[in-house]
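Table S2 (text version). Query chain:
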Amino acid sequence: MRGVIVPLVTPFNEDYSIDFQALEEHINYLQRVGVNGIFINATTGEFTSLNFEERKLLAEKGREIVTSTFYLVGTASTNTFEVVELTKHAQDIGADYVVIAPPYYCPLSDEALFNHYSIIAEKTDIPIILYNIPGCANPLSVPLIKKLATEYSNIAGIKETIDSINHVRDVIFEVKGERKDFKVFTGLDQHFLNTLLLGGDGGIMACANFAPELHLALYKAFEDRDFEKAMGYARKLAKISKVYDLASSFGSAIKIAMGIRGFSIKPILRPPYTMDGEEVKGKIKDLLSSLNLVP
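Corresponding structure-token output:
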């Protein structure tokens, strides 16, 4: 698994129920344009606002629809044994990978985090992608990532949603350098090319929900060694990543951008999240217009 993986939004109806028709439509669109992976129950998918059974149901529905690309399921929780259950469920339905962010809310030591992931790795067989998102959960240090990767063969990679190319560099050099099959993905659109140039494997980037053509074009240019073209697309992704600064949440930013671009996803977030209003929508529209992304 390499390239462009999309952390999928979760579409909702006006009554906050899951809009499965819109989900299927969006997944089929992403498969048609050729993304390399689809990741359900992601941060962008508001997994913390879904109950346990909804997360399982979404994973099952996604597995039915995703047929031509890698399928990843988020199984993070503050409860280690709940993570084990969700991970076993993803394994049983035939997911290719699970993605597991660290427990959030309570600060934990590296020893506690190692114990958390060890229990999961020992009780399941599916390949695990660690998810480092220090803005939302306990941070994963390079020594901890290296220890997990070298002790557990089913810990297969990491998504790095961290605005530090030095950290990503160290993970690539120190962890991937020792274990060649360990995958390193950025979670930030603006670090996609940086990560590839350092020897990483791709990106799991939310803006690919509404502008996957930019991410795919950058990846193709990189694979073709057309670095001038790749740099051009990298500058566009750096600019498009400003969308997160304009909105109050990942979900609001992505769903507003999707609406502007003509996707059928409704502008609805599950509480406690709220959609931003017309002022923010205007700013996001201006940003997309500057990149010729408004129909």
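Notes on Table S2: The longest helix spans residues 20-33. Residues 3-226 form a domain with the TIM Barrel fold (CATH 3.20.20.70).
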